[in-house]
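yo

u said u wanted the structure for the complex thing, so here. seqs first:
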Amino acid sequence: MSTPTLKLPGLEAVYDALAQAIDQAGPERTELLLVKLALLNAHALGDADAVQRHIQAALQDL
Amino acid sequence: MAADGGRSGIREQLGLKLEGASYEGRFVIADIRIDLPLPTERLAFFDPVWNPGNTILMHREPHGIWRVDYQLPPGEEPDEALRPESLKARIDAQLAMIGHAGTPWEMDWCSVYSARALTLPDYRHGRVLFTGDAAHLLPIFGVRGANTGFQDAQALGWQLAFVVKGLAGQALLANYSAERVGAAREIIDEAGKSTRFMAPPSRGFRLLRDAVLSLSLTQDFVRPLYHWRTSRPHEYTRSMLNSPGDDNALFTAGPGHGAPPRNVRLGADDFLLDHLGGGFELLYFTEAAAVPQPLQDVVAAVRARGVALRVTAIGARAPVQGAEQTLADADGHLRQRYGVRASGAAYLLRPDQHVCARWLTLDATRLQAALDQALPR
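structre next:
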């Protein structure tokens, strides 16, 4: 992974927010929520190669 | 000429295999005669209540016809889908869903298709030339079936004629195949994306499609993902007919190698393309009184061989000697659209009007070279 751009307090905040959003969406809508989020993040990142690397990293150790 | 359609018997008898992808989703395509007070635009319904998990498309056609395409549940056979009771129940359900239950309609025509994106790798086999659906099967998601057939015909028409008349060698038929296979592959690539959106082939594709639809209500950036990708004409960028010794790379605007010409409005109800067609076209940009004699000599020599070549002078107020027609281009709009800044520039268009050469300053030697390149012996 590249240089971290999110310091620990920020990461902790994302951790909680993601968990709460998943609970709010419910089991039926969790996948949809996460895919929408991934597309929004990819758009903000503006780097398709980086997204490919993140996909490969996420596929590990499932 | 094998123009015997998607189930081409000639293709089968020659044992030729199409290359590409077949998608599983099957659709009923039905043209119904009905009066609906809806605008002329395409309507797409994803996962509707009466056809869960599947996709429905509707659009207006001429003469009081609406086309309805609906995806069949996995495993349903065409015979079953085309039973009159089945058609009636589903079309009635669709009309009810859009608020027009009970509106009278009658069937005009219907069939079943599957989303295939396939092409022969070569449209020339000995003395057989494939064209249209016999040469390729394109998904409807792109509206390129009949359109591509017309473009194939436009390409084959002039190239076959030039070979039959002895104005070019067999290489021109190989070029027909190379150019049109390239066009089909581009369409397959783009229509494949549309197909994976309209009829997702797996759970992952369905999830992405649903996420994009959901996001599209508030996020503009996802909307191009469901664009039909149909509006860009194919360019023969790497055609062997393109002149290697011209100034193509030096232009900063205008249609490049293999591109169709840009249409330009010349006046009220008067457009550049109204003035072109029927053979090779030399667009010569000049403010002078005459086309230079050495260029006129090359034009005369190629015409003497039987090649139709028209010269159009652009940018002069009075008729230019040596040109069949002169377009004044008083406001300079045409020159601007073609990236021309000075007299002496030129474009050479093939009989299908695609650009095969362009020069900032044309001379007789390079005009001759471009004509030789476009008409391989």
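The radius of gyration of chain B is 25 Å. The first strand of chain B starts at residue 19 and ends at 33.
cya
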